[in-house]
Give the backbone structure.
Amino acid sequence: MTVPQDAPALAGLADSHCHLNAAAFDGDRAEVIARAQAAGVETMIVVGLDPESSERAMDLTRLHGSAGLAATAGLHPHEAGRFGGAIRESLERLCAREECCAVGETGLDWFKDWAPRDDQLESFRWQLALARRLDKPVVIHSRDAHEDTIRLVEEAEGVRGVMHCFSYGPAEMERYLDAGLSISFSGNVTYRSADAIRAAAATCPADRLLVETDSPYLAPLPHRRERAEPAHVATTLRRVAEARREDPAALAARAGDNTRRLFGLTAAK
């Protein structure tokens, strides 16, 4: 598979959220990583969805750490029906590891409702508390669940982290910014129906803006029906730069620095 690259490569890029630990990449993972590097992607945050995928994310950082991979550990809201004592013990152990740079992916999903809402709320609240206790950022998923998401974030005063794959508009974004979170824009910012998301991208403070792929999901236009991969973050970045009327190269470097600073991969500037 080949991925058309924007030219020239955008130096300093970071994919703040990808799932290189997914089975979708088992056949060509090394080639996917090489394509990302060719596109200028210097950092890839490999996100865990449950203890098993979190272990795989950390294994990948050991195999491909020189390519800028870093790992998180968490329980996705779709998996929250599994939440209980054994999961808590596993997550606490995984998140405490030095190679784990964040807690999550956690959060709430009222769109698909694949796990009972009470379980999602309990899992999310617990992971927010864990992130505060470990002093690590939290990676938050929220779909059709803004009011409950922001309520739990505000209850966890002082928590830091990122709203991944932001799917709301400027008004909702302000509340997450007020709570101290960063905002990450994914391939959905390129979709024709995404005017509210683009409006948020246009007004997001420069020091809180991140970009991501959420690969293998949500490939940006014109790759929407393809498997997404970290190289596509260059396409998303260029669309965000267009919405902000900024130079893509400058925005790529700044968003990359924001990602590395949030996840503790470089000293804060």
In short: The radius of gyration is 17 Å. The domain at 13-262 is CATH 3.20.20.140 (TIM Barrel).
